[in-house]
Amino acid sequence: MKSFALLFLVVICGVGGLGQKLKPQKRSNGEEINFRTKTKDVCTMSMSGDDEMKLRIECKSRGMSYWCEFTGKPSICRAFRNNPKIYWNQIAVELRKLPHACESTQVLKATMCQKAPTEALMKQVAAGMEPEDLANQDKSVQETSTSMRGAGKSPVKKMRKPPILPLVKPTQHGQGSENETEAMKLAREHCWESLHGFCSYIIGIFRG
Predict the structure, then answer these.
(1) Distance between CA atoms of 122 and 107, rounded to whole angstroms?
(2) Using an 8 Å Cβ cutoff, are 45 and 56 in contact?
(3) Hey, which residues does 126 pair with through a beta bridge?
């Protein structure tokens, strides 16, 4: 009876130990933390990676947007492995004290991992800044160019140039002038205004 109880206890302990080994580690991948800097910049920080973590910070400030990226191995720190959420919250608290989330932040340090090796520190590897509406401007330019290409495929009607009319030079006085005046009068009655000179010239020829 005692041997059976002892065997049962060993099985229970083994199952409990197996359950602890199968317990999933706490992760922080894909999570986002929103915060505001000292100058009220609206920022979002997102984390990704396993052994080597990547931290990206994106902020909007007075019509401008800026971003920066950090990489490091905070998993070297035992406190991080126990609770990564507290680690990232401490990073966010430090960023809230700054007027600009990406300037003067070449290295991010959390209070819980101050004694960790330098490899555990999150170091800045990239940064950038651009107008907040630049993406919208690029999109509108692309739409405009697309519509212009579409319009280029449609048939375009060419405007015909008006004919060049010969100049009518008076060569005779008297009767010639009267014929010319009558020809101009008929041209005004029967021809378009832009063709008065041409019609007058033709009528003058036929009237002699």
Answers:
(1) 6
(2) yes
(3) 69
For residue 53, what are its two tokens? 């973590």
Q: Give the β-pairing of 122-131 and 107-108.
A: antiparallel
Closest CA relative to residue 165, chosen from 199, 128, 208, 125: 199
Q: Write out pLDDT tens, residues 175-199.
A: 555 556 777 787 777 776 777 777 7
Instruction: Round to whole Å and give the CA distance between 140 and 144.
Output: 6
Cβ contact 36:96 at 8 Å: yes
Q: What type of residue sits at position 58?
A: E
Phi, psi of 124 (to 5 degrees): -70, 130
Please give the model's pTM, rounded to 2 decimal places: 0.52
97-129 residues labelled b (16+ CB within 10 A) or e (exposed): eeebbbeebeebebebbeebeeebbbebeebee
- d(CA 158, CA 156) in angstroms, rounded, equals 6
| DSSP state letters, 65-110 | EEEEEEEE-GGGSHHHHH-HHHHHHHHHHHHHTSSSSSTT-SEE--
Encoded tokens for 56: 């990206």
